Amino acid sequence: MRRFLRDIFLCIFSAILLILSFPKPNLSILAWVTLVPWFFALDERRPKSAFFFSYLTGVIFFSGVLYWLTHVSTLGFSILALFLALFFAAFGVLFSICMRRGLCALLLLPCFWVFLEYIRNHLFTGFGWALLGHSQYQNLAFIQISDITAVYGVSFLIVLVNAGLWQILKRNIFLPAICIFSSLALTLSYGYIKLHYPPQKGEDIKVATIQGNIPQIVKWDPDARGYILEKYLRLTEIASGERPDIIIWPETSVPGYLQNDPALLQEISSLSKRIYPAYLLVGTPHEGERGKIYNSATLFFQGGIMRRYDKVHLVPFGEFIPLPAIFSRFSFAGLIGNFTPAEDYTIFCFSKEKQRIRLAALICFEDVFPHLARRFTRRGADLLVNMTNDAWFKDSSEPEQHLQASVFRAVENRVNLVRSANTGVSCFINPWGKVLSRVRDASGQDVLVEGQKTESLKIVSMYSFYRAFGDVFAWGCSLVTLGALTIALRRKRKPL
Q1: pTM assigned to the model
Q2: Is 349 a catalytic residue?
Q3: Can you identify the CATH homologous superfamily of domain 203-461?
Q4: Which segments of the chain have a pLDDT < 70?
Q5: Would you call 364 a catalytic residue per the annotation?
Q6: Residue spans per domain, the chain
Q7: Which helix (DSSP H) or strand (DSSP E) does residue 287 occupy?
Q8: Given 251, 267, 366, 412, which residue is catalytic?
């Protein structure tokens, strides 16, 4: 009983430290030690008890990190936290099976973690939020390896350090310290080279981002349509005074369906003419054939529509109901949209003098998925834009957590990324993951504020192993995990 209570405490302690590693308060340094107490709790545990202690850790962590979902649905939050905790539980089972068989923890535990994060980013459409590597989004030297491994490489490194510290404390040996030191030295050396020897050639473009700060409660109120439109028109005309090449509005910022509302279309078209020679990219719902509704981004120039992108990766339980025969009966169904996923990975093109800039829009949480952003850059996008609306979650940690993912998409693909949020963090991120500037008010606040910001970005041509070859690193970790599990189940050392 004494050990049981001790291990409960260790799991809770680990979960709390892990929560603190993420915004807010974003104490990222804690991530490098946070798993050690949990590993001690799992030591010598059988799979069933390892499942229990790990599931407890996962429930506490995801409850603390995703608490902002309660602003939308308490039931949805509870279901998601309980589901995501299963990935922690699966890690605990793998830990128990393989460590009890005497396999090398220093190599395998990081592979286990990456394997499960990769599955989490794909299973049931995927939910790659709050991956362990995301905690380091401000530590630029560490995250440069993402152009090889994606965010999974940073997660691997963090678990490697935690596993090494656990081995040192458990066995009083210092061989893992050599591995930790070598891995950190190589990572930091690579990061230093990337940060201090950037390419010098590139075309400068000026991009403006608009943040309307429209409360969700009035966003679709017909009586508020004039107020919303006036605010975006005013902020856009202010931004046009700085002569940007393109001005970007957030997700569903247009208060209506353009193709069904001639007056609304005329307003946006007239604005596009007034801000010439700037292009205008706006977020709007779009009604297609057979009444299908799309979450879209539309590019205007000189009053005309150039092209439209319809979102391909929808938010389950947000933009559509998966398995409607089962879930449509629940109370949160009334909060869910009825959008249709598209299939085309549209690339926008706009011109500056003689150069054509290729742009891809990632709408809402599409920037959470490394493989999705890669598809756009593989098709030629040299600028990524995240158009989002985080007003659902008010002044919580969600907007900064969302920013974490965008930082990694920029580094992985070595492109600039611009964020335009209705409410949230509207900012500019360079190809090395540095946040150049944000939309802020006079007091320095950057979430529940309205405003506009223009930044000059250098469009550079940089090689990215990840963009070229994809999730090779994650696949390798997955193969190691499956191989280790096979060997462990065949090896007779300690009974399970």
Answers
A1: 0.95
A2: no
A3: Carbon-nitrogen hydrolase (3.60.110.10)
A4: 321-337, 492-496
A5: yes
A6: 2-197+471-490, 203-461
A7: strand 279-287
A8: 251
